[in-house]
Amino acid sequence: MFIISTSINLRHNEKSQHKMAHKAWETFLKFHHLIGITLVALAGAAFYLNHSLNYWNVVRKSMKEEKNTECDFFSGRWVYDNVSYPLYNEEQCSFMDHIFACQKNGRKDFNYRHWRWQPRNCDIPRFNGKEYNTTIGFYWSPFLVESNCDDYLNHRNLDNRVVKIEAIEKHARHWNDADILIFDSYAWWLSPNKLLWGSFESPDAIYKQVETKSRPYEMGLSTWSDWLEMNINRTKTKLFFMSVSPNILRGDTFRHCYNKSEPIPKNLLPSKRYHLMGVLEASLENLRARGINVEYIRITRMSEYRNDAHPSIYRATIDHLSEENKKDPTTYTDCLHWCLPGVPDIWNQILYDYIMKS
């Protein structure tokens, strides 16, 4: 009968099951021990990874903050400072042109001399020109290329301006050996000009009246760019180009400079796009692609606030005006040039820092 046998087999199975249960428990303990070790390892790895990520996040944040705190000279505000400014007095400057001598020309309010430009995250460094054994030359070439306005003393009353749009050598031969060249050409392109191909004396010369402003400016900058590429010593000569000095048209009553004694508040100045700036910036970008770096000094926006710092009616040429014109000051105010000391001194301080860093 199979009942006994079954009973014996049950006892044997109980022993086997007990052994198997013991082994299973050992295996279970070992498995849980392994899981525990694994979890600890994973926790350690997660902690290390999290610590590493936190570390690099801190590094990236620090780098970003450092980048954000780099000095942007052109982002800031005008601060009234009658302790440090002006940097000099008008009568102390023997080189000053009468156009900029507003005090000599009768201006009585002097607050315009006490405004200092304060960048957002830094200060503009000061410099003393006497510390450097340097020769500075001013070269008059309003169009960069040749024109019939190239006489510095006799060019203001020319009604028929002619620009030799592809000729630059007469001027550029004086630039060859310079260590630093700082260019500025904008305001003279704002009026319609007659372009010339050929010489002034040649009967075969071609003249063309061009009413648009951008195309002649583009052509003039192209001639200038070609000369730079062919002649400039790229390892020696540092190149700079000043952006537009704000020109305030008579119809712009908000920016007009007549009878203004304080800067325009920052929150009240709307943005303005100077069309020819795009032409200039495209030209500089094109030069960069050709391996010539021209540092662009963006003084336009910071200068726009200072409609109080122009000569306005305090200009030397007022005696030449008709009595009819004198009755309406807004018809002869000078909102293009600047009183000195004043805004251009800030430009020079910024330019100095660019030169030293280059």
UniProtKB/TrEMBL annotation:
Residue ranges crossing the lipid bilayer per the database entry: 28-49
Gene Ontology, cellular component aspect: membrane
Keywords: Membrane, Transmembrane, Transmembrane helix
InterPro entries membership: TBL, TBL_C
Residue span(s) of domain Trichome birefringence-like C-terminal: 123-353
Family the UniProt entry places it in: Belongs to the PC-esterase family. TBL subfamily.
PANTHER family (alphabetical): PROTEIN TRICHOME BIREFRINGENCE-LIKE 34 (PTHR32285:SF239), PROTEIN TRICHOME BIREFRINGENCE-LIKE 9-RELATED (PTHR32285)
Entry protein name: Trichome birefringence-like C-terminal domain-containing protein
